[in-house]
């Protein structure tokens, strides 16, 4: 079962994007009108942070990839027009972050993402 238009999601590009040094490769996987809902201790489920479009997503990725941290794609599962992945991160001071994402795909690009993240305090 493929995506609605038959375009496959590129999980290798997802890995390279997450584990890279900039957000540019990762940004290439998002549709122009993509939306990300971020849920964490600061932006809880009733009031998530919502990013609209590649411009806002690029700003968030630029902020994240400027930080002293490493990122690793731990798992990724793709089924039809949906995918889920786990990302683990570690700041230079040892603080760890774990993020889980569920994404909806359109034409092989990320159209919607729900990102739930937690970090050491």
Automatic annotation (TrEMBL):
SUPFAM superfamilies according to UniProt: NTF2-like
UniProt-listed Pfam families: SnoaL_2
Residues passing through the membrane, by range: none
Species, as recorded: Streptomyces griseofuscus
Protein name as it appears in the record: SnoaL-like domain-containing protein
Ranges for domain SnoaL-like: 24-112
InterPro entries to which the protein is assigned, alphabetical: NTF2-like_dom_sf, SnoaL-like
């Amino acid at each position: 079962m493929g995506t609605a238009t038959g375009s496959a999601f590129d999980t290798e590009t997802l890995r390279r994007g997450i584990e890279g040094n900039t957000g540019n490769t990762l940004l290439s996987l998002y549709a122009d009108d993509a939306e990300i809902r971020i849920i964490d201790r600061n932006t809880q489920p009733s009031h998530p942070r919502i990013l609209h479009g590649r411009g806002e997503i690029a700003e968030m990725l630029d902020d994240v990839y400027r930080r002293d941290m490493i990122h690793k794609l731990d798992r990724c599962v793709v089924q039809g027009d949906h995918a889920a992945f786990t990302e683990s991160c570690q700041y230079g001071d040892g603080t760890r972050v774990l993020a889980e994402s569920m994404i909806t795909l359109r034409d092989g690009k990320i159209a919607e993402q729900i990102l739930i993240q937690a970090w050491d305090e």
